[in-house]
Amino acid sequence: MAESKGGKTGPSERLGTRERILVSTLSLFNQKGPEAVTTAEIAKAVHINQGNLYYHFRTKESLVLALFSRFEADALALLEEADAIQGADSKAYAGFLRKWFSLVWTHRFLFRDIPGLLATAPGLRAPILMISGGMRLSVEVIFQRMEHAGLIHVAAEDRKPLLTNMWIVSTYWAVYLGLQEGVRDLLPNHVHWGLSQVSGLLRPYLSDEARADLEAMLSEPFPEF
Q: What ranges in the chain are assigned the alpha helix state H?
């Protein structure tokens, strides 16, 4: 392992090869999209040969699935955090929505490039459906808690369409920007735009307190990550 000046290794150098591959691949996929990134480019970014790369990941699909597993773990951790929210803490609920979009930003290639990803990595379909179902169930529980606390009121016949539309927008906003607006390089302001679209679906159903906390959350722009 190479050493930096002073005889100490930097943070990236202390990571194992598999971890460095995943970190570099995520960065490249986010920048260029999986279809535009070659295994040779990944190996070069990690400073290994392609044989070493194939030792850890035999195909590009295996890289996509490994990165999705990380997203899934982060999403489940976020859901556990949301499950711990109790009572009428509308700021915490607004914060959950923002944290979801921060997670989306970290793994943005999964959302921006999902049509092509399913062609490149067909094994991704099953885990996507699983995490989608889990997220929707958890959000429905959050709705029930918010209703019980008087933070939101949604008529029974409107709840399922609202939850479905929220999931559609929060999942495919980046695809929309790419297809309709020609946005390829996602920036923090685009993430904030997606967050604002989902918030717009919620706003009519919120109490005054919950709406004020939502607006306060939206007033904070996403930083340059």
A: 11-14, 17-32, 39-46, 50-56, 60-83, 90-106, 108-112, 114-120, 125-148, 156-181, 188-202, 208-218
